[in-house]
Design a protein that fits this description.
It is a single chain. By secondary structure, the chain is an alpha+beta fold. The protein has six helices and eight strands. The chain has an eight-stranded antiparallel beta sheet with strand order 1-8-7-6-2-3-4-5. The structure holds Thiamine Triphosphate.
Length: 209
């Protein structure tokens, strides 16, 4: 049986990082760059589809949330190029980069994340500090994750994550993802399209430094 990731992101404002990692075991720190792709009319992201290349590896995140008001969003992660081509109905005839260009895709966001991973009991905690090519602002976001064995354990695990965060005095506000933040700050037409499609909700918080 495949484990299911239950995860929730939190705003990483002043003091939150220390409260979150108190008593946790440091696992590692990694830095990686992501390039996110879309067409000129935002055909992927208005449908909550996120295509990226991270260190040569492709990944397409496909929203599984039927209800956009749900507290935790869930995404299927398609990692094989062949399956990404199938999902996006792209030709299998030439090299993936060329096929993307021919189909009108280009990079709209390049971001570099320094991620420090901690473990606290059953919780994995990621602290992400993000910079964006061509801008001078930075964004920080925390994620708490728990693995469960079956769908029926998801709600309980999510509640445990929320209780853990509350016990550390962390605000439970709706947070923007790192790519959302870039779109909001740098791509007004794109942001408008995501608000209109319901992919981003206007009350989601994403303060940059
Ligand atoms: C899923 C998604 C996007 C793609 C980037 O996903 P994200 O989880 O922000 O990045 P990262 O680097 O943590 O990915 P990982 O290393 O875990 O694979 S861009 C926007 N979304 C949707 C989304 C959402 N609806 N809400 C929040 C808080 N974040 C992202």
């Amino acid at each position: 049986m495949q484990d299911i990731e239950v995860e929730k992101k939190f705003v990483l404002s002043e003091g939150v990082e220390n409260r979150l990692i108190e008593g946790a075991e440091l696992i590692n720190t990694k830095t990686f760059m992501d390039s996110y792709y879309d067409t000129d009319n935002f055909s992927l992201t208005i449908n909550d589809l996120w295509l990226r290349n991270r260190a040569g590896a492709w990944e397409l995140k496909v929203s599984l949330s039927q209800n956009k008001d749900k507290f935790a969003d869930r995404y299927e992660e398609i990692k094989e190029e062949k399956h990404i081509r199938e999902f996006l109905k792209l030709s299998s005839k030439s090299e993936f980069n060329n096929v993307l260009v021919q189909a009108g895709f280009s990079v709209f966001c390049e971001c570099t994340t320094t991620r420090t991973k901690y473990r606290n009991g059953l919780f994995l905690i990621d602290i992400d500090h993000v910079t964006y090519s061509g801008t001078d602002y930075t964004y920080s976001v925390a994620e708490i994750e728990r693995m469960v064995k079956s769908e029926s354990d998801i709600e309980g695990a999510l509640q445990e994550i929320i209780d853990f965060a509350k016990s550390r005095g962390i605000d439970l506000v709706s947070v923007l993802g790192k790519v959302h933040v870039y779109i909001k700050n740098t791509r007004p037409d794109h942001y408008k399209a995501l608000i209109e499609s319901g992919t981003i909700k206007s009350d989601q918080i994403g303060e940059t430094d």
